[in-house]
Structures are given as structure tokens and as C-alpha cells.
Specification:
The chain has 2 helices and 8 strands; from the N terminus they run ααββββββββ. By secondary structure, it is mainly beta. It has a 5-stranded mixed β-barrel. A two-stranded antiparallel sheet has the order 7-8. The N and C termini lie far apart (about 100 Å).
Length: about 150
């Protein structure tokens, strides 16, 4: 048997540098993520996410006429009021054809496609502005502003 006292228990470090508080922050390597910045991906079928069969069905359908009720470029969507009446039709930015951003009052032609998963509502696809609303400023997708 040894008469040596047991070693003292380890003490927590008291100097900030010894616990890493003064270390410079290291750049954290992150993989690119399509969801970064967005909490939940949009469930709306854009031109890129629409199935081929839904695109074919929509392109074979009739052409409708309507008036742009509203469109928000920053949000990427808006609504069309059908010329023959009925509920407003959803419009996604990826389905707008041509060089101009739609604004309220623009006359448009479009085809319709159902919105999954329930397929109860409709959205406008292949939207073409036929007449620019008079007296309004129109913006091209590249950012040029034109008065009509």
C-alpha cells in the first residue's frame, strides 16, 4: 500500500483563450442547398415542376381570354379575371410568355391546368399579353420601363 495522497480533481480552465472564446471564427463549409433561405418549398406546380402529361393536356386545351387582376413580380404570382366570368385564375411567373411583366388591366390569353394534389383549382399556363393596359407603365423582364 502506498501512502501517497490521491491526485487533485481536474479544475475547469479559467482563462478565456484556453476554452476557445477568443479564437477567430472558422468559416464553416456548407453544401449549396436549394432550400437555403426558404422554410418550405412551394407546392405550386411551376413550369419546371409540372409533369409532362399535365403540360401536354394544358397545351391541347382551348385558349381563354381574360384581364390581369393583379400580379406581384417580387412574389412571382398573380390572378387573372376570366372574360366569361367565374372565379379568378391563379397565374405563376414561370407561365408568362413574352417580354413584359403583366400589370393590372392587361388583356391576356391563356390555357388552363389543374393544380395538384387535389386538382380542384386551376392555374393559367401559356399566358400571353395581347393588349397592354393603356396609361400604365410596363416593365420588361430585363428591367426597362415603358409607358403605354
Amino acid at each position: 500500500m502506498s501512502s501517497e495522497p490521491p491526485p487533485p480533481p481536474p479544475q475547469p480552465p479559467t482563462h478565456q483563450a484556453s476554452v476557445g472564446l477568443l479564437d477567430t471564427p472558422r468559416a464553416r463549409e456548407r453544401s449549396p442547398s436549394p432550400l437555403r433561405g426558404n422554410v418550405v418549398p412551394s407546392p405550386l406546380p411551376t413550369r419546371r415542376t409540372r409533369t409532362f402529361s399535365a403540360t401536354v393536356r394544358a397545351s391541347q386545351g382551348p385558349v381563354y381570354k381574360g384581364v390581369c387582376k393583379c400580379f406581384c413580380r417580387s412574389k412571382g404570382h398573380g390572378f387573372i379575371t376570366p372574360a366569361d366570368g367565374g372565379p379568378d385564375i391563379f397565374l405563376h411567373i414561370s407561365d408568362v410568355e413574352g417580354e413584359y411583366v403583366p400589370v393590372e388591366g392587361d388583356e391576356v390569353t391563356y390555357k388552363m391546368c389543374s393544380i395538384p394534389p387535389k386538382n380542384e383549382k386551376l392555374q393559367a399556363v401559356e399566358v400571353v399579353i395581347t393588349h397592354l393596359a393603356p396609361g400604365t407603365k410596363h416593365e420588361t423582364w430585363s428591367g426597362h420601363v415603358i409607358s403605354s
